[in-house]
Amino acid sequence: MTNQAHSVSQYLVDRRHQLVEQRDPRLPDSFVGALAFTTTLVVAVGIATTAADTPWALQLAVMAAVVAVDSWWCRPLPSLLVSTCAWLALNGIDVNGNGQLGWAGRADVVRVGVLVFVALAASSMRWYVLRSPSPRRAFGPLRHLHLVRQGAPHA
């Protein structure tokens, strides 16, 4: 004899996972290239026109922030396209200028490494948050951190 409550609860669990899969808020993979190209190009041109004499570490930090925001909205594998477009725009417009790509040795290794790491970290974190059963359980021990309202009793 099977337990009817178990079969119903199993159906609800399977149904919930199907609904989560259907409501994936990330971009379709086909749009990631257009988003990556547009945003990184606009930011690289903005850096080149307003802050051309800033150190390359600050330029890299600004581009890494753009990569993180873009990669938050895509899956881990397409986020590599975002980091590649960011490196091409940063290298061609800000580092070498006039759209000429070049390899600067150790500095370019650092640039590529940082951009790839940021892209994979942001998209993997988004994947983890979407797959966690509850937002409260998404960050493990950090779920107990909260702000205490002034005048509220401490538990």
Question: Please, could you describe this protein's structure?
Answer:
The protein is mostly helical and 155 residues long. The chain has a domain of 84 residues. The chain is 67% helix and 0% strand. It has 5 helices and no strands. Helix 3 runs antiparallel to helix 4, helix 3 packs parallel to helix 5 and helix 4 runs antiparallel to helix 5. The longest helix has 26 residues. The radius of gyration is 22 Å and the shape is elongated. The mean pLDDT is 78.
Give the SSE string. Answer: HHHHH
The coarse overall form would be elongated
Strand residue percentage: under 5%
How much helix is in the residues? 55-70%
Number of strands: 0
The CA-CA distance between the termini, in Å, is: 46 Å
Secondary-structure-derived class = mainly alpha
Please summarize the sheet with the most strands: none
The Cα radius of gyration reads 22 Å
Overall pLDDT confidence: 78
Could you list the spans in which at least 5 consecutive residues all have pLDDT below 50?
none
Count of helix runs: 5
